[in-house]
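From the shared-data thread, chain only:
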Amino acid sequence: MSFNRIKEMINNNRHLAILFYYIVMWLGYNHLNQTTVPDIYLYHPIDSKIPFVKEMVVPYVVWYLYILVPLAYFAFKSPDDFKKLCMFMFTGMTISYLIFYLVPNGQNLRPIITETDIFSRIISSIYTTDHPTNSLPSMHVILSVAVNASICNSAIFDKCKKLKLFSILLCILICASTVFIKQHSILDVVAGLIVSSLLYSRIYSPHYSIKTVRELFIQI
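Structure, as C-alpha cells:
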C-alpha cells in the first residue's frame, strides 16, 4: 500500500479520532469502579417488587454488541450519524462521571448467587468485575438510548421499519435487564432516561416532545 493511499485513508476517516475519547472514558470508569466509596445507596420500594430474573442477563450482555455493531457500521457508512452517536454516548458518559464524582453512589440490591447454570455464572462474573457503585445514572440505559436514537434517526434506515422496531424492543429489553438482574435500582434507570431525553433533544430534535416518540411508533 502506497504512502499516498495511506494518507488518503487517514484523511477520509479523520472522524474516527473521536474514538480516542472512549479510551479516556474507559480509564476513568475503571478508576472510579475501583476507588468509589458510595455516600448514597439508592433504593426505591419498586425495587423490592421487581423479581430477580437471571435469564435477563442475555439482553444485558447483548448490549455490548448493540453498541459496537452500529458504531462500527456508522463509522464507515455514515460519518455524520457516527459523529452524532459519539456525541450522544460520550456526552452522556461525561455527565455520568461527573455525577459519580460529585455524588458517589451505589446500591445493595444484588442477591447471593448459589446456582451454577450458565445464566447464574455470567451474572456472578459481572458482579465480580463490576462493583455495585456508580450506578446512577445507568450508562447501560444512556448508551442504549443513544444507539436506538441513531438507528431511528439515520437516513440510511428510513425504509427499514422492522430494523427500527427491533432496535426499540432491544433497547427496552436492555434497560429492563438492568433492574431484573439487580445491577441497578429503578432510580438509576429513570435518571438514565432523563439524561438521555436531554441529550436527544439537543442532538436529534430541538423541538423534541412526547409527540416525537408517538410519531415514531406510528411510522413503524
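Residues 57 and 122 are 7 Å apart (CA to CA).
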